[in-house]
Amino acid sequence: MTELNILGRHLDSWRSFQSLPLWVQIWVAGILVPVNAAAFLFLDTTAGRWAAVAAVLVLLSNYPIMLACRGMSRLMALPHLAIWGPLQILLLHRLVVADLVQPEFGLILVILVVNSVSLLFDTIDSWRWCAGEREVPGHDRL
User: Fold this and answer.
1) Which pLDDT score, from 0 to 100, does residue 90 have?
2) Which of 100-118 are b and which e, b meaning 16 or more Cβ less than 10 Å from the residue's Cβ?
3) What DSSP assignment string belongs to 39-75?
4) Cα separation of 51 and 55, whole Å?
5) How confident is the model at residue 142 (pLDDT cuts 50, 70, 90)?
6) Residue 140, pLDDT score
7) Lowest mean pLDDT: which of 1-10, 69-78, 112-121?
8) pLDDT tens column, 61-74
9) CA-based angle 126:36:64, to the nearest 5?
10) CA pair distance 75, 130, nearest whole angstrom
11) Residue of 4 and 72 predicted with greater confidence
């Protein structure tokens, strides 16, 4: 791909994000991403390392999808299910064995709550994508 093509795909993706309802933009940019990125502040903990690895895997899988689709495709929900689903199970286990007074406990609770809500949305979006709803917000095509 040429530099202009890559730049165009990024701009299309940004426009697609901006075309989402405001509450979705706030959810993604103001809650979902920051909560999962917070794991990098807890790399000295087991839960922090697990969540950081999951965040990187989600980024590495969703970024190419976003560029290929030129925006916020429902297809981006599938990696969330595959990566955050198992993370939720690991975090629930860790919650049982973690020391309740450690900062790791708070991180686990916040990630469990936020990613549970996200997984609910992701399940719906994945179902809809598999059912053929392939349009990309902000685009007339697909």
Assistant:
1) 97
2) eeeebbebbeebbebbeeb
3) GGGGTTSHHHHHHHHHHHHHHHHHHHHHHHHTS--GG
4) 6
5) very low
6) 64
7) 1-10
8) 999 999 999 999 99
9) 50
10) 8
11) 72
What is the Cα–Cα distance from 74 to 129, expressed in whole angstroms? Answer: 6
Six token digits for residue 44: 């000295």
Is the pLDDT at 100 greater than 80, yes or no? no
Tell the residue number behind the tokens 């590495």, with chain if given. 60
- With beta carbons less than 8 A apart as the criterion, state whether 70 and 11 touch: no
Token pair recorded at residue 86: 């198992």
**Tell me, what amino acid is at 103?**
P
Q: How many CB atoms lie within 10 A of CB 7?
A: 11
CA-based nearest residue to 77, from 140, 121, 38, 114: 121
Residue 27, token pair as written in the block: 């959810």
